[in-house]
Amino acid sequence: MAEQAAGGAPPSLRRRLLVFLLVPVGLLLLVAALLTYAIALGYANRVHDNDLSDDVLTLEQMLSSEKLDGELSEQARFLLEYDPDGHNYFTVVSRKRGLLAGNGEFPHAPSPPPGTAPVLYDSHLGKHSLRVAVASMTSPHDPDDLITVTIAETLRDRHQRAREILMLAVPLQTLLIVSVLSLVWFGVNYGLRVLQPLTRRLAARDELSPIGDVDVPQEILPLTRTIDGLFARLRSVLALQERFIADAAHQLRTPLAGLSLHVGRALADQRPETLRDALEHIRQLTVRTARTSAQLLALTRVQSPLADPAGFRTLALTELVPQAVGLRVHEALAAGVDLGYQGSEAPQYVCGDDAGLQELLDNLIDNGLHYAGRGSTVTVSVLAAPDGGSLLQVEDDGPGVPAELLPRLGERFFRVPSNGEPGTGLGLAIVQRIAERHRATVHYRTGAHRGLCVTVRFPPEKSC
Ligand SMILES: Nc1ncnc2c1ncn2[C@@H]1O[C@H](COP(=O)(O)OP(=O)(O)O)[C@@H](O)[C@H]1O
Ligand SMILES: [Mg+2]
Question: Are residues 233 and 141 in the same domain?
Fold first, then answer.
């Protein structure tokens, strides 16, 4: 995807596989060629060494029938010196009479005793490397004389043989490798055919139910499971949207009917006092409707599974909460409520989102100011919890909520019947969702004497 976005071709499995295989396979070809050459050379050496030994023995046999009284016969000389490419050397040396024949000076090794197999060794002549075979025999005419026959050849022919074998092997190996790479190239298509049933099944779907693991190849499972996770989040977003639409339609129906009623009333009777009364009702209804839609939106926002948790950071409740309380003091004074803050000595940290926590606290303070009533006290505190977490508490000494209704606080649209205040019944639901996003829990109980005490309990890990 990233590659595609950058303007290049989409990533390709085949290309990736080929590129991944090319370098190691190239190296393998090289190693195979080296090995082939080494094996071929070893083989050529064996064959040539045998030939060289045979040549020494043949020469010895030929010399047995020679007079060996100084010069070699014409025929023997021709045979010995016949060397069309100039890569063979020989010497025939008599212990008594010295060099009888020869065409090269190369270092001699001690000859083996007469009658034993020729000895082979490596040597040099000028810049040429040589392979030498040496054997000895008792002179056929003089039992006291020892004739040593040495034949040497350069390694050129052996390398030539090895190269010939290499030239045969390398194209074959290359052909093999090219065939395997082509198989990989087409094999990818074949391998991907295993996805066809899944593709068909997905193409036939028009809902977001999980793909599941049926006919999903093992290698694709992590991908389909990730997609299933995404589907699950999308399903809950869709459910949330549906609920929002249903709630909004339901919640707006009553105020819209009220608005229409009061407008009708104003149109029917245009006396100033009726008009004023209708307008006042219309004002109240619009304020309430605006508040309802704002709360519905706030609830939907904090419930969204796509809400970005990246905004979470380490926050000091002991700084954030008193600031938020400070901003509401004037409003509290106007409402005749004594709003105060009590903080723990030690700073209390949570991993959270600034705006969310602010909204949570505002909803709790709103309720304190509305429901506790004139002359009451609302105390916000931040405490260290015994388990190492932090507690945020909002307590008032107002009328509170009947004990049997406490468990219902936090339900969407739940309002204590006849509480006498305008509201939506969404504030505590919002508090609840924001707390969940912080992995915190919300508890409601009756205050020390009366009133309501709401406690938000944050888990022990304090930094993000
Ligand atoms: N501090 C409080 N004292 C008494 N009743 C409360 C208090 N806080 C909440 N309630 C009750 O809980 C109900 C739900 O509160 P909330 O979810 O904030 O919705 P709203 O305030 O819009 O009605 C309120 O209608 C009220 O009856
Ligand atoms: Mg409220």
Answer: no
Closest ligand relative to 419 C-alpha: 1
The CATH number for 280's domain is: 1.10.287.130
Domain boundary pick from 303, 330, 346: 303
- Identify which of 393, 428, 455 to mutate to test ligand 1's pocket (most ligand atoms within 8 A of the CB): 428
The pLDDT tens digits for 269-319 are 989 999 999 999 999 999 999 999 999 999 988 888 776 667 889 999 999
CA atoms in the 13 A half-sphere facing the CB of 173: 19
Residue 250 domain boundaries: 218-303
- Report which protein residue has its CA nearest ligand 1's atom 19: 425
Domains in the chain: how many in total?
A: 3
SS3 call for 148: strand
Helical H segments across 368-458, by residue range: 427-437
The reported pTM is: 0.62
Dmax (CA) of the chain: 162
Q: Give the pLDDT confidence of 35-75 residue by residue, as tens digits.
A: 999 999 999 999 999 998 998 888 888 888 776 665 667 77
Pocket of ligand 1 (CB under 6 A): 363, 367-368, 371-372, 396, 398-401, 409, 414-416, 419, 423-429, 452
Q: Whose CA is nearest to atom 8 of ligand 1?
A: 367
